Task: inverse folding
């Protein structure tokens, strides 16, 4: 993905104030330069930087407790999801925090700033590079990604006043060296024939070993073909990097592979950061088409929204902050959101990773199931790369979302690209403690020293991710990756939510406590591994594993676990 920063020009009068008395400063974040980047010297002193200051939110510990109270099946509050106002009471900064930080900015000569975010928990400022150096005790430089040539301005260290450390979580983008989201899937032409994989007990055509279609998924997982009935039930699909979902390709896909539903079935479009959904064969996005075709074409009748994030973003992570802020601000966001993009955890740094992860917590507390593809690099991260220790993907390690790995074949073995492992930022949440401990005990000393055994483990579950048929640019082809798996699993959850709403029950919301409490609701995957970093990676085994999680969905068993 092309990482795009947008800069706004401010009148120089905004910085005409005299230099204030210097406060005692404390280093907020620092890092070494990643080996994939090189310094390209200082930017022009007048280069405008669009920076965001993340204000400390009032009670995220209390919100986390509330999230688990409404998401854990054994809790008396299970299913009593919070309202927007209830979440805001936890996530908004205090008046004291807002006052302290804005007063400092004014004292520093920054009078042009804007409160932003769904809870007014960010302050956006535009300052020249020289001013940013001054107020943050930093040295902003131009950096270039050696392989792609992509350039942006960052610093390896910045400081804030010592007395504001309790009020400021981070300043961004500063030390984050995020370039590309996960690579787009590549299409290949379907080849007749079957793979040499033995069929499992689930009856599915042997042709599904080499070409996966909605009919294959319906057979493998028991996904119903009957139409959903609840118009209030929504399924959101994230779209980034100018990937456009084509209505013509969806029509062809449905005509060919879902002839039992109207070929005119379509989706609505929501724009963030000026996002568009340009139509035309030459504009077809393989990833966007995949995500839309395996939601509209699998979650039969569920209203689907393509949330397209444009290039008019300056959040330093390709719109990842902006899309979740936009959904957090809605009174009725979609109950399920699937995203087939991600990063390597180390590129964000712990402060930014935590802030983004907490944004998923605020949305999850309101009853939204957030699913992400786990990545396609095995244990080497979001995509295959050289490494000496295992590279956790992001947001795979975030404990407040559901990470989806990949399988292949009718017999369902782990796909070797399925990213999985253990976070270096987030500790293991209680909902997965027992399952992960059992896996680590069985693993023994294998891969010792290459990963953090105390970290949040991922993925949580899995679905088919190899030889998945789509239509793009008018042509049928096959794609592979966990970017196939996430929309498939999201469709299953949306169909379960439809049944729950029809029965007068709350939707599933944040999934993980429910998933780990009901391992019997999944087809356990016990073969395969996810190699990388010069190793065989982690092996799949009985129970949870860091390749396929708890396994793949058994629709009937999930319904039963949900009390339907």
Result:
């Amino acid at each position: 993905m092309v990482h795009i920063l947008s800069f706004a020009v401010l009148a120089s009068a905004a910085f005409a104030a005299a230099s204030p008395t210097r406060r005692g400063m404390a280093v907020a974040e620092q890092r070494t330069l990643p080996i994939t980047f090189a310094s390209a010297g200082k930017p022009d002193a007048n280069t405008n930087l669009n920076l965001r200051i993340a204000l400390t939110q009032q009670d995220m510990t209390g919100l986390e407790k509330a999230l688990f109270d409404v998401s854990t099946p054994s809790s008396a509050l299970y299913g009593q999801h919070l309202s927007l106002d209830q979440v805001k009471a936890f996530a908004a900064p205090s008046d004291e925090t807002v006052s302290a930080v804005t007063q400092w900015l004014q004292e520093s000569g920054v009078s042009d700033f804007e409160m932003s975010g769904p809870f007014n928990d960010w302050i956006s400022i535009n300052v020249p590079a020289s001013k940013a150096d001054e107020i943050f005790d930093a040295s902003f430089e131009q950096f270039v990604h050696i392989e792609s040539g992509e350039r942006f301005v960052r610093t390896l260290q910045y400081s804030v006043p010592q007395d504001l450390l309790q009020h400021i979580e981070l300043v961004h983008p500063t030390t984050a060296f995020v370039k590309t989201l996960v690579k787009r899937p590549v299409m290949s032409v379907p080849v007749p024939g079957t793979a040499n994989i033995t069929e499992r007990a689930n009856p599915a055509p042997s042709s599904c070993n080499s070409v996966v279609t909605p009919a294959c998924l319906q057979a493998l997982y028991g996904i119903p073909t009957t139409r959903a009935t609840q118009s209030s039930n929504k399924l959101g699909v994230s779209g980034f990097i100018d990937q456009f979902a084509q209505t013509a390709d969806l029509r062809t896909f449905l005509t060919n592979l879902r002839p039992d539903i109207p070929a005119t079935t379509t989706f609505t479009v929501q724009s963030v950061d000026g996002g568009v959904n340009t139509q035309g064969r030459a504009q077809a996005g393989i990833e966007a088409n995949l995500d839309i075709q395996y939601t509209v074409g699998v979650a039969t009748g569920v209203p689907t929204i393509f949330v397209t994030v444009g290039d008019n973003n300056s959040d330093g992570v390709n719109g990842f902050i902006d899309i979740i802020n936009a959904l957090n601000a809605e009174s009725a966001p979609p109950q399920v959101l699937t995203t087939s993009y991600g990063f390597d955890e180390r590129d964000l740094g712990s402060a930014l990773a935590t802030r983004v992860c907490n944004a998923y917590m605020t949305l999850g507390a309101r009853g939204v199931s957030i699913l992400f593809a786990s990545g396609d690099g095995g244990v080497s991260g979001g995509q295959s790369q050289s490494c000496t220790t295992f590279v956790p993907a992001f947001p795979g390690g975030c404990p407040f979302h559901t990470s989806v790995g990949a399988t292949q074949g009718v017999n369902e073995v782990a796909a070797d690209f399925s990213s999985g492992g253990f976070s270096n930022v987030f500790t293991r949440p209680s909902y997965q403690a027992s399952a992960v401990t059992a896996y680590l005990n069985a693993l023994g000393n294998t891969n010792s020293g290459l990963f953090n055994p105390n970290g949040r483990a991922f993925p949580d579950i899995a679905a088919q991710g190899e030889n998945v048929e789509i239509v793009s640019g008018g042509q049928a082809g096959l794609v592979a990756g966990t970017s196939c798996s996430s929309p498939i699993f999201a469709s299953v959850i949306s169909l379960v939510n439809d049944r729950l709403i029809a029965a007068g029950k709350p939707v599933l919301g944040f999934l993980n406590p429910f998933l780990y409490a009901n391992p019997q609701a999944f087809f356990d995957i016990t073969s395969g591994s996810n190699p990388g970093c010069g190793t065989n990676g982690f092996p799949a085994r009985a129970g949870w594993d860091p390749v396929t999680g708890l396994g793949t969905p058994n629709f009937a068993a999930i319904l039963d676990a949900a009390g339907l």
User: Anything to note?
Assistant: The first helix runs from residue 60 to 71. The chain has a mean pLDDT of 92.
